[in-house]
Amino acid sequence: METLSTLDRAIKLQRVELFSELETELLALLGSIAEQVSVEPGDTIVEQGSALDALNVVLSGSIQMSRDGKALFSVGEGDTIGNWALFDRQPSVVTATALEPSWLLRIDREEFYDLLADHSEMTRELFFALFKRVRSLLASGIASQSPGGD
Questions:
Q1: CATH classification of the domain holding 115
Q2: Residues 46/92, Cβ–Cβ less than 8 Å
Q3: Which of 49, 86, 78 is nearest to 66 (CA)?
Q4: In terms of CB atoms within 10 Å, which end of the chain has fewer, N or C?
Q5: Would you list the DSSP string of 89-115?
Q6: Which range has the worst mean pLDDT, 38-42, 75-79, 136-140?
Q7: Which three-class secondary structure state does DSSP give residue 48?
Q8: CA-CA-CA-CA torsion for 83, 89, 94, 99, nearest 10 degrees?
Q9: CA distance 8 to 109
Q10: pLDDT the model gives residue 137
Q11: Cβ neighbours of residue 143 under 8 Å, at least 6 residues apart?
């Protein structure tokens, strides 16, 4: 895969639910700190029990998610690994391993925090997106627990 420009990285990041509501200029800033990373089959991206310090967005390829050595599911283009890593310091509950040659966009937590410190408008928009996601999760949990809410 060719190296993506900052604009191309921003376009890829806009497809991530957390970043989907950000304005173009804020996405471009986010794209400027996103590192394009290549992984080979068998490479471990995240180890179960280890600290999460980055959000990874799959650009291409396939990544297997497993827990306690058992495969759970795989993720591919547009999916994320370490969804809460930018906001939460809890260890990973899964191991993510490349199944094939893959490309990722990696956003480091500390660089992300530096960006937020300089751009408070991004912080505000991300809080709105986070709360929207939490409300959605709560609503789907409530719906699945109500009578007839399969």
A1: 2.60.120.10
A2: yes
A3: 49
A4: C
A5: -PBPSSEEEESSSEEEEEEEHHHHHHH
A6: 136-140
A7: coil
A8: 60
A9: 21
A10: 79
A11: 149
Report pLDDT for 105. Answer: 97
Residue 107: CB atoms within 10 A of its CB come to 25
Q: What is the mean pLDDT of the chain?
A: 90
Residue 150, in any domain of the structure: no
Is 58 among the domain residues? yes
Identify the pLDDT of residue 144: 62
Residue 145 lies in a domain: no
Check if the beta carbon of residue 24 is closer than 8 Å to that of residue 6.
no
In terms of Cβ atoms closer than 10 Å to its own Cβ (0-12, 13-18, 19+), residue 116 is middle
The total number of structural domains in the chain stands at 1
Does 146 fall in a domain?
no
- Pair of tokens at residue 85: 């890593």
Helix, strand, coil tally for the chain in percent (to 5): 40, 25, 35
Residue 8, token pair as written in the block? 């191309």
Contacts of 28 (CB under 8 A, 6+ apart): 6, 7, 10
Domain membership of residue 110 as a residue range:
6-140
